[in-house]
Protein 1
Amino acid sequence: MTLSATTDNRPRHASRAPRKRGPKASMGTRIRGWASTTWFLLPALLLFFFFVLIPIFVAFYTSFFNWGGFGPPDDFAGLGNYRKLADDPVFRGDLWRGLLIIVFSIAVQLPIALGTAVLLNQKMRGRAVYRAIFFAPYILSEVIAGVLFGIIFLPGDGLADKIVGDLPLLGELAGKWFADPDTALPTLFAVMTWKYFGFHMMIYLAGLQGIPSEVLEAASIDGAGPWRRFRSVTLPLLAPTLRISVFLSVIGSIQLFDLVWVTTTGGPTHSTETMAVTMFQFGFKRYQMGYASAISVAMFVISMIFSLIYQRYALRRDLQGAVTSAGGRR
Amino acid sequence: MGIPHLSRRSFLTAVSAGAVVVTAAPFLAACGDSGSGSDGKVTIEWMDIATTEPSKTLYPQIARAYEAAHPNVKIKLTNLENEAFKSKMTALTASGKLPDIFVTWGGGVLKQQIDAGLVKDITSDGSAILNTLTPVSQKPYQFDGKTYAIPYDMGGVGFWYNKALFKKAGVKDVPKTWSEYLDAVRKLKSAGITPIAIAGKDKWPEMYYWAYLSMRIGGLSALQQAQENNDFSGAAFVSAGQKLKELTDLEPFQKGFQNAGYDTPGGQAATMGAGKAAMELMGQWAPAVQKDASGKDLGDDLGWFPFPSVEGGQGAATEVFGGGNGHALSKDAPKEAIDFLAFLVNDENERKLVSSGAFMPVVKGAESELDKNRKLVADALNSSTGFQLYLDQAFPPAVGQEVNDSVAALIGGKKTPQQVTEAVTKAAKSQ
């Protein structure tokens, strides 16, 4: 909301304004302007060039080779790696599991985050404490969270086994969790939800605070109950925040790596493996850099296509001037 | 917020200048270079994995001792955690510049580095020291009759077992054949004891079973032939998978083994060390790790027996599966580096390394420093009639990892013995 408001208020062609002075401005001023622009842009451009653009192109290039990571790539394979990728049951499984994680994130994690945010947006005692508590898991590094849950789900002696051990229905779960192909992905997903819902809750809280109380008061005066106010006022006004949150959630799910690596390394028998884990396995365990590059390119393309489509159709109202919004017009 | 007194402009200038410096630093750093100077001073770069005791203390000690005796030499030791070391070596190999001295397990990985022309052939330069070492310890580092590393540890894999638990289950003698072994597992199981601890998350401990079964059924020649022809579809390998399936069908492993690490809390070594499982198939380092991971010492309850033979199999029970550690030299390493490696395994230092409990002797006649159990391993090794290096080291990494992955899937019930051999063959053929 605030974003689009400032864009609208800015005078048209504001960015071009200095140019109109062009002929009148002295040569020295212009050179100094250029120099300072370059000076300010240089660090970012250098970083972007060396650590983003070059690696992307190198990955594209090496994905066409059978290359072990030693010496220059010289065994050209054409599209061989991509054909192998399409036939690889593990990679296909990665796609399926990725989709599951995305669907569950949006269907479970985000509603929980939204509900908590709405609750914590009310005036209540100890509100700040609750917010801090729910946000805390997000601040922990993935590795620490992974090790922590590794201990919690330890077969036999772990906290989780002790809790469910004597329960009638859940007792079956004891000793399984991360150790059984059927329960590993749901367990992983539970950990992900614990880890990330606080982040989305924080975004929603920020969004909720941007909703003017007058609108809600007006709705109350018109006779809207709490549900109606939420449904017809809060939710639509929160929509831009929701759209960003879904976007971040999907991109995060596609790139999911560290939490999986620490808790299960993708096992048992690939049941929690993600594209990023498969890429790591082939790149740094099997030294098949060419094939790993092909996986990274596939990840890049999937993220890219999703981002473009999502920006074009879902975020167009929120992001002016983005690549996909056709010149920034509505 | 945190920077209230700086004007916006000066702050931004400072930040951007900082960013430029940070960006440029790696490029500037790359310009300087270490190495031997003109004044006769030599710096040896040594990259190792000694992040745990006892080598964590012993290596720097030995390096300092060498420096004291040779004032012109400076040894720069960098220790990385095992997996981090492997990743770092990949990057260094790709850049074409290896540290002067680095740890290696030999086999396929070392072969790749040799083929890239980065490793020094020490067959003649190192002959003096190599002659004092047991021949079996040098095998993993020999290719086409040339030796590329100086070993400092060598051992074999076998069953470490808990004598008290075996007694409790009524298993009197250690199993000599596979069917005796399965009987022992059944007896342990019916006595309410978890027969085997295994690390399904790490996978390589599972590979040991398949590898040993293949060796016992097809003999060493079957493995060598399979590696040469890139074909693992032979009957011996399928049969090894079937025998392993017989074992897993008895459900002999600890609860939750599919997510158990080897040396992590609650993992294979900790389960074994805490007396919660009756045996594990592991290398010479097993007792040290059991103690470290569980905080308990099995003491005299711990015993060792070689992998049983399989009825009707080609391989003898005296053939050992295992491996060791060695130090290789980069092709540009100064001549002082090889002198230091000789110093590292000289009489005094070898005794220190072996008696520390983490290493097995490579110097002929150093077995006297061994405790009872590790002496059994050393005896098996020295009287062995054949030797096979760990499959995930002997084979190129892609094949070795496929073996680990596929065997884990077999034990997890997701692959049949045939599918294992097919997957491994496919990985081998695509090399």
Note: Chain B touches chain A at residues 12, 16, 19-20, 22-24, 86-87, 90, 93-94, 96, 112-113, 115-116, 200-201, 203, 254-260, 264-266, 396-398, 401-402, 408-409, 412, 414 (CB under 8 Å).
Protein 2
Amino acid sequence: MTLALETIGLEKRFGGIVAVDDISLRVEQGARHALIGPNGAGKTTLINLLTGVQRPTAGRIRLQGHDITDAAPHRRVGLGLARTFQINQLFADLTPLESISLAISERLGAGGEWWRPAGGKPEAVEEIADVLARFHLADVMHERTGTLAYGKQRLLEIALAIACRPRVLLLDEPAAGVPEAERHEILATVSALPADVTVLLIEHDMDIVFSFADRISVLVNGALFIEGAPDAVARDPRVKAVYLGEDIDA
Amino acid sequence: MSSPLVSRVAAQLARRARWRPYEIAFWLLALASVFLLPGRHLILTEIVILGLFALSLDLILGYAGIISLGHAAFFGFGAYVAGLLAAHGLVTEPVLALLLSGLAAAALGFVSSFLVLRGSDLTRLMVTLGVALILRELANQFAWLTGGADGLQGVIVQPLLGLFAFDIAGHTAYVYSLTVLFVLFVIARLIVFSPLGLSLRSVKANPLRAAAIGVPVNARLVAIYTIAAAYAGIAGALLTQVTAFASLDVFSFERSADLLLVLIIGGTGYLYGGLIGAVIFKVMHDYLANLTPQYWPFWIGLVLVVIVLVGRDRLAVWRAAIAAALLWPFRRKPAAPEPEGSGR
């Protein structure tokens, strides 16, 4: 069976610094795969390489068996790779309704249409309503995104990625900065993601990692350190050593 | 999924693109000016051309976030194409010549769009300024074709559609310009409420995220830059046709800079900013130039400084009052600015 996402000898150098060092990561279809590691381990750079924001200095990236190493970021979305951002990246002047309808138009190949109002297709309208309902955004759909409460913005952050109907979803600290009271809502929507969507989760919070992931990769100093099932990784003395003396949320 | 929600979403989407009462009032006023102000059609035509030109800049600045200090490049190119088509009798029917001038400007816009894709606002300011300077110098150098510094002579504009001759009082010119403006405005309005318009606003707000939800950022910027160039070219061609003349002045830096001023006065990102700004700018210009022929730029400069310092949002409330005060001695004159126009 083809892997959902695979990197082969991926490397990124910034001058003399190796941010990502020969990483060969294999993410199975439908996996709930977590990527953890101390600060500066290269998690963000790896995400940027996977999504095409930065180009690797060596190595290949395959999505569902297709080589996407040279594809532009928006092309990767079309091929089924979507992401969320650790720090919200939203469209402050647009409403949630407009933002989601935009993502859906682009996926349906209607993003360049100029002669019809946005979201005019009946099937698009049903899907917009569906996403708004699933992410508890229906009540605020007509409000400017910039004025929404942080928890709602966080939900929209994930909703936008889901509206792209990804086959592989990269979640970059989905609950980052969300107050304890609203955390549950975010995590519930993450757990409720369709089973056929492969998820690669980047997370610092070990409670979330161990309740969500069925496989964990540990990144240290830009290289893949250990990979395995959650209980095996939790018991591994080397992982403890890496985190020893460090705040686990660091 | 709840079906009441689906209908709410559909209603909300439909509401976005609906014509607002103030819009209908605006265009009724414009139509009324044809009949009520026959003695002012010359300056009204100037306003319409400036408004169309500003609408073009609003498409890239207000909707895609591309700032330009050389938008006159496309205005001038359209002006000269229309002039040459008429002077050499290549295309004598004005409407057809207007479309061809727009297409020519669009081609130039498409090619130069690749220069503004990358880089910061400062880079874009310099690149757009540079393109306009280059075109002006080319028009100056190729005097055998363009007439150089003397301007393009011998432009004879045939009757519109072979039926309506241009008259000295500018009645035909005004109705023609206003019709062109309205048609292009309706198309621009379609664009900004379409998926394309939405994607442009997303690129302006956050290009990183726009790409991350599948928006081909560069292709969209190329598209709107090309469309805006066509609009600017048509505005320039209109100027040539209604004045039967084209000179190097169409490429001038002042023209590009005034255009930014018009949008700063009127506001960006709601399509009427350029039109309202053009009315205020021209009327103010006309009034101040009568009052103090030599010092009117002082007042324009003062207005600019006040707008930027006070901030547009707070000013929106005052603007109607200030404009009304400025226009008070002018009350019998054309198209007072729209009271509801301060939108956004």
Note: Residues 333-344 of chain B have pLDDT under 50 and may be disordered.
